[in-house]
Amino acid sequence: MAIREIRVVPDPVLRTPCDEIREITPSVRRLVDDLLETVDDPGRAGLSANQIGVSLRAFSYNIDGKIGYVLNPVLEETSGEQYGDEGCLSVPGLWYKTRRADYARVRGIDLDGKEVVLEGTGLMGRMLQHETDHLDGHVYLDRLEKEERRAALRYMREHQK
After folding, report:
1. Is 37 in contact with 30 (CB distance < 8 Å)?
2. N or C: which end of the chain has fewer CB atoms below 10 A?
3. Catalytic one of 23, 115, 131, 145
4. Comparing C-alpha atoms, which of 36, 26, 116, 124 is closest to residue 71?
5. Non-local CB neighbours of 149 within 8 Å, separated by 6+ positions
6. Is residue 134 marked as binding?
7. At residue 145, does pLDDT exceed 60?
């Protein structure tokens, strides 16, 4: 297990849709271990595989003290609405109000190939949408209102190392 470096925008891996996991291999098991260890840090709600440079459909989460993962997640259902602050490990230091569904449900599998269903409202619902967006090659900035998105991109250009 290892805590992995977080990829940040504009790294192209963050804009590339991730591949489905077709076989549970030792490298997939190591990936899950790394995702779990890397998300286990205060303030981290979720982490997708492409955020650590691996283009496979997997993410880990850390919500209300519960840490877990899902492979090949598919966002099945959303409902309601929330509008609140959202940030991203791949967009460090920027928090913007982002519109999301309040409730979300994701279906995938675990390392044994058994079905996993994750669902929730509030922060859990937001995280499920945020991480599946990552796996589809999107970052939360894509969901911002036009003027906020412009301001965020301008800030990032001016403050990139």
Report:
1. no
2. C
3. 131
4. 116
5. 141, 142
6. yes
7. yes
Report CA-CA distances (Å) from 15 to 3, 9, 51, 94, 145: 22, 9, 10, 18, 19
Smallest Cα–Cα separation from 30: which of 60, 2, 57? 2
Token reading at 66: 């519960």
Query: Cα–Cα distance between 96 and 116 in angstroms, integer?
Result: 30
Instruction: Please report, as a single letter, which amino acid is at residue 6.
Output: I
Q: Which two structure tokens, joined as six digits, stand for 17?
A: 């849709």
Per the listing, tokens 């190591």 go with: 30
How many CA atoms lie less than 13 Å away from 10 in the CB half-sphere? 8
Is this structure's pTM higher than 0.85? Answer: yes
Query: Was 159 annotated as part of a binding site?
Result: no
User: CA nearest 78: which of 107, 49, 108, 54?
Assistant: 107
pLDDT digits (tens, 9 = 90+) for 84-132: 999 999 999 899 999 999 999 999 999 999 999 999 999 999 999 999 9
Half-sphere exposure of 138 (CA within 13 A, CB side): 11
The number of CA neighbours under 13 Å toward the Cβ of 80 is 12
Q: Tell me if the bond preceding 92 is cis, omega within 30° of 0.
A: no
